[in-house]
Amino acid sequence: MDTAQIEQILMANLPLQEVHVEGQDAHFSVIVVSDELATLSRLKQQQTIYAPLMDHFASGEIHALSIRMFNSEKWRDERGLNGY
């Protein structure tokens, strides 16, 4: 599984403004930008993001996934500070 496939799955299944995926060898990190999902608890955010990827966890294509969540406003601030 590559990063573009994960981005495509998440964008197709969740209400996201942006998603950025990095990683390899079944270990990935995602930056998710969603005003809707950012209002959820951390646990609910994680469950929501994992849901469309569960088949890939079960098959071993994804072993680990770290998640950073932003709403649009916080992402603009983060992007400005870190050069995304």
Q: What would the keywords be for this entry?
A:
single chain; 84 residues; alpha+beta; three-stranded mixed sheet; 4 helices
Can you walk through the features of this model?
The protein contains 4 helices and 3 strands, in the order αββααβα. With about 80 residues, it is α+β, with helices and mostly antiparallel strands. The chain has a 3-stranded mixed sheet with strand order 1-2-3. The longest helix is centred in the N-terminal third of the chain and has 11 residues. The two termini are about 25 Å apart.
Summed up, the helix count is 4
Q: Could you give the distance between the termini?
A: 24 Å
Helicity, in percent? 40-55%
Overall pLDDT, averaged?
94
Shape: globular
Overall radius of gyration: 12 Å
What is the gist of this entry?
The chain is an alpha+beta fold and 84 residues long. It is built from 4 helices and 3 strands. A 3-stranded mixed sheet has the order 1-2-3.
Please specify the SSE layout and strand pairing:
Blueprint: H1 3-13, E1 18-24, E2 27-33, H2 42-50, H3 54-59, E3 64-70, H4 72-82
